Structure formats: structure tokens, C-alpha cells
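Our preliminary data section would be incomplete without showing what the modeling component actually yields. Below, a chain of 152 amino acids is followed by its predicted structure, encoded as C-alpha cells that our downstream tools consume directly.
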Amino acid sequence: MEAHVWNVVCSGFYQLRQLCSIQRSLPTDARRTLAAACIASRVDYCNSVLYGISSQVIRRLQMFLNAAACLVIGAGRYEHITLALRDVLHWLPVPQRIQFKIALSAFDCVHEHCPAYFNNVCIPVTGISGWANHRSAERHDVLVPSTRTQLG
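Predicted structure:
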């Protein structure tokens, strides 16, 4: 996964350098849209597989996110960007982006809006015979079958 993150960060910084060359001719809204598209295509694509990865690897993605925020806002190289990420741009930090993506996938599975290959990942307890009268069915819990798959 480190090689994947390295490739994502390298290609993302390449795109940011291309945006830097035209940033003076773009209004702030256009820069924000282009940077958000760059982030969505790089950082958010399949980021749920990065759950549980080391903080050092996550830090590389966060550096790319911070650089994109500096480009949009026009902040200097050494300015603190964390508050601007939250208050101005409304962008989540990378660990929270990963958690959000996983939570959204689970929500889609529960409400049956997920792709077909996710149908057996989160099974509502109400759909299992013999469990309809349990308290877990009243709480709308889900059953996640155990697997033996390992990553890494």
C-alpha cells in the first residue's frame, strides 16, 4: 500500500504544479473546484482500503491535501492550514475521509443501495430467519460475517 500511496501523492503533486502555473488567471471558486476534483480523483478514490494503514503513510496523503488547500486559499508555504481546511474549505482530514467512506459504504449496504458484490457484507438482522424477534432486530443492527482475508 505504501507504493500505491506514493504514486497517488506523486501524481497529485504533479497536478498541483500544473494548477500553480495558471492559478493567477483563475478566480478562487475555479481554483477550489479544480483542487476538489484533483483531490476527489486522487485521495478519495478507493481510500477505504487504507483503513488501518500506518500514520506515516497517511501523513503523505495529508501533506498533499494541505498543499491543495494552500493552492486554493493562496496561503504561504509556512502558514498553518488546519483551520482553513475545516472552516473555509470544509474538507475533512485524511483519516476522517477514510472513516467517512467506510461509514458511507456500510450505510449503502444497510439500505440496499450498494453494488452487488457488497450484498453479503452487511446483512440486516431483520432479514435473517429466527432473529426477527430479537432486540437487535428492533435496533436495526446488521450482521457482518467473519472472513479470513488479510491485507498487507
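The longest strand covers residues 123-124. The longest helix spans residues 2-22. Preliminary results of this kind motivate Aim 1 of the renewal.
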